[in-house]
User: Fold these one by one.
Assistant:
Number 1:
Amino acid sequence: MPTAIAVTSADLVLPPPDAHTPTAHVLTPPDRQPLDDALAETHLLTERHGYVVVLYPSSAPAAFVRRLHTVRSVLESDRIALLETDLPPLATGVLVRQLRRLSVCDFSPGVLAAASRLLAHYIYAGALLNSVARLDRVPVSLTAHARSWVPGSQFAVLARPTPQLVRIGGDGLLAGPEFATELTVATGPLSADWVTGTLAPHWRVGGLHRAPLPEDSARWWGTGKLTEFAAAIPDISVLYQLVSSVRREECHWCGLELIGDRCAFCSAPAAPPGGTGGPRALPAAPDPAGRRALAPGRTR
């Protein structure tokens, strides 16, 4: 069976694009599950799939994160990878969906887990907000703070990969990806018309997907009046080639394959201290839509 992908919230399990994409396992919060049950649940998941990749947001409750590390420690398992991401909630769900799709490919568990950091660099994550007065995830100017108090003001904010903020009605537009993407939109109390009617054509997205607004979005963005969006690579062949193009190494500690600078399962660095090597720059990946190739980057 493919490597299991697990998450800390059902909000992070977006509808699959096809019938071949497996779902993600939703772990139970510690306030609703005793430790013994959590141990049994994770042990069963590991035995069934061989390896488990748990992706959780940096905004996850501290008690939940402690539970994850406790379960992994008690089970003494090197087959469980705990991966934190600072992507916004909807973008995290999009990343999880990409990992779910790649889990049925021929990637080893170490490569699949490490791919989460690589793929996160190619997700454009933002939101349409009625106020940025409480936004602390993206730099906000004093002028924007002041305009937040003007009735009817709206702002478009890009959190990843490069923070950007523009006022709706002004001359600015958010800088978008220069490679083929599809846009996932989670409509909240704020209308998504600007996102679907202005941003989507400007970014030249190849498709539009709807998703429920994640419960944690209001807290992440600092306001309940928002619509969240995320643009990401939709083509499984491009995702596959992007991950495949990175040099693989064998972890000197646990023996798993890895890409990037450290093992996702045991956190050991890619090369022994004082050794040579390390991750190479990512080569450009082809774009089936005929637009510009993916820009070279580096794993972190």
Number 2:
Amino acid sequence: MIFQQFSKKQKLFIFLFGIFLTNAIIAEIIGVKIVSVEKSLGFSPLGLQMPWGGIWDFNQTAGALNWPIVFITSDIINDYFGKKGVKFISYTAALFIAYSFIIIYLATQLVPADFWINVNAKNGGFDINFAFKQIFRQGLGIILGSISAFLVSQILDALIFEKIKAKTGSKKIWLRATGSTLISQLVDSLLVIGVAFYLFGNWTISQWMNVSFNNYLYKFLVAILFTPVLYIAHFLIEKYLKEDN
């Protein structure tokens, strides 16, 4: 088989890059949806009055759901392949994300079959093609916000990770992984929402701030909760790389 030609470390890189790229593209595609965390869990919205005049509910982008996996995988790649490895996957993933948006946009431009519209019509007023366009035709602002935030936060994460690792060595995996993620994710959350929905959209500053910090709060908690997963991943990777050596 072709994979027998690759070393274990090369196979590891392909596997980790696959996880990274898949979750990055999925997060970008579903990120257009804003969800109510309280209602999803069966609670009433928080409704806190904020100093700047807005109402704070736990609303966040659906893309935040699996975004922590992207940064966790990035940290693992940084550990085994360095900053060059992270830069490679970041730039490559950004190109694939842009490509995905182009294909999705072209798909929304295609003329739908009449029977497809008819069989999906409900109560005589549901237009599935309109819904398809509204969901998948993400505007220029969301594309620019997504890609710019992705690249900036990924490179920042790699730099902070490298700085912490230079001081702590191979120890304290939790510190370099969590520390780099918490800082880079703050930048990512503010930048992607700001560019996509405030700068190019019609959101207010309070909506931008509230959703951004809700995204960050979720990523903050997941980064901490996933710390044991990092240690398990490192244990399994070390075991895999040492086998038959």
Number 3:
Amino acid sequence: MYMHRSRIRCLLNLVFGITCLLSIETRAELQPFPYTSVEKNEIQEVPDYRLVLSNVAKVNGRINVSNSRRLNANLVRSLYRLNDGFELSEVWGFYQQQLQRNNAEVWFQCHGRDCGVSSLWANEIYEDPKLSGLEQSQHYGVYHWRSSGRSHIAIIYGIVRANKRIYIQVDQVTAAVDQVAAGPITKKSDLPERNQTPLFVPVSLNASDRLVMTTSARTIIADISQKLLTMRPQRVYLVGHYISNEGIETEMDKSQKLAKQLSEYIMSTVTGLNLDPRGVGPLSSTHPEAKGVTQWVEIFVEN
């Protein structure tokens, strides 16, 4: 167990509006995604909150966390279930916009199987089986900022269960500045630059020339968006490719639409980026992942 039961626990009963007073000021800094239902909402004083800053694995039958810190902190913990019809990537983008407004530093984040074993996050880290799901769908991030003379840390974990239900766990931790003054900051992500193989995003246009994104593509874009949020490159190029028998002018036009609509989607989740969508139609089809594919977008950056 990575978090001892707090000496003070306050359950917020949202139905009856019951609240309780703590000996310290504790409040949520991040607003919840509006299309969710609250499964759990707690306020705690935690003398030894374990801040996980790595993926989670099991080695020789024991849980292994390669990087973590202990904090004497005040905690607001909320568990949300996402309403049907929404994607986890949309929630992730919603929180990233708030974190950006707070000038939050990225201390650690991972996506998909890079986060490790889902059941360990659920049962060992958070002690809630609802958070056990499809490992390829995981999102986890730790973010830090300062305000009012305190350090604020947001720890966000999202998962899609096998039954398609989506849960988001949000821990909001407040601690003394001197506890986290030397907090770890992750290295900038290595998005490809010019003359490197660009990122391949399998998106397409439907019969009405509207962007179509598979679940796999949404996961890729969520990962790219977080890397862009961390890097803040000078310019991001989105190059649309469209191969058909419709003629070169139509193919050029539709490849531009493909890149532009993907650019608009990314900007709906991460603001403040200089995105440059271009269309090359069928004129360049050399990406190693483009075999058998007729529509896609490539992404690279200019730092």
